[in-house]
Amino acid sequence: MRALAAGQATWHRIKRPATWGAVLLFGLVWALARWAMGFPGRTPEDLLGPFLWALLFLAVTPFPWQWTGDDAPLARAWRGLLQAIPWNAAWVLALLLLLSGGGPRSGLGPGPGPGRGPGMGRGMRMMAPPEDRPWLPLHPRLLLLAVTNLSICVLLGWILADKERAEAVAREARRTAAQAQARALQAQMNPHVLFNAISGLTELVREDPEAAERALVSLADLLRGLLDHGARAAVPLALERELVERYLALEQIRLGRRLQVDWQWDRALEAAEVPPLLLQPLVENALKHGIAPSRTGGEVRIGLQARDGDLELEVANTGLALQDAAPEGVGVHNLRERLALLGLPEAAFSLFRDGDWTRARIRLPRPGARP
């Protein structure tokens, strides 16, 4: 990761409930252990010290391992060590100096009592070196504690960073698998659309050969649009409308005056990119189940608008009423699955009856908006 991304990863790690749960558990276990050994903490430093150490261990030790300078999620061993040692030495020594000042106090750290063991706080007699070893810059206990904590920091940081790297790889694998499945469903739509279009044109071959010829030209245009859509992960809404217009031109030849189309479309939103083939299956569903079976035909309204910060796409039709018990078509079922793979809630798509109208509605977050 680059420095900014590594910093963001650190911030997200701090915000995790699991981090705070681990900090709380460590602090409580430490306090109980001290109490059981007969050395309960009496000062704020004694009580808060273990919680602070645990938070710092979990929050900041992975940072030097995650700061790679490129897109790699974990630094190489030599770079990680070169970054982890000074990074952890700086904050460990700074915190030890902060907590170790003052007169003799009971230790904050893992020492068995006042003045014993590598305590994290004031269990040492000041920070000055002993008189028999004036050449030491700090008390041996403080140096031992610093080296111990530094070693733990380097090792724990690498373990946590490697764990987050593995989690990131797993998330990316799941995302890639979901994209592949969505693309497979998207590819499934192409032959489905063509099959339905060709089936609808067979009746024109004998009844109106000239109309059938015009329909074949429109079908070729539709095929080009489908191939272009199939090669994309996202398309501008302008292209989505263009594909639907080609499909409607084909169906207009077959249905004639029985099909009325009304676009209630906000052109200012056309540049927004969405997953391909969102509108076409809804329009096809409206024609297949509402307009075509009706002797008098009906109207199809296709809308695009911004609502509460989202993009709202709607296809509404008159004609035959929506039958609740009717099985869901391939196109609509395919659309539901693709929306689910994109991580959208089930409520993002709705199909319902509204008076004389059957409405199919999709709500999508606008590109660039926060989820």
From TrEMBL:
Residues 180-259 form the Signal transduction histidine kinase internal region domain. The chain crosses the membrane at residues 20-39, 51-68, 80-99, 142-161. Keywords: Coiled coil, Membrane, Transmembrane, Transmembrane helix. The keyword Coiled coil applies. Residues 163-190 form a coiled coil. Gene3D superfamilies: Histidine kinase-like ATPase, C-terminal domain. This is Signal transduction histidine kinase internal region domain-containing protein.
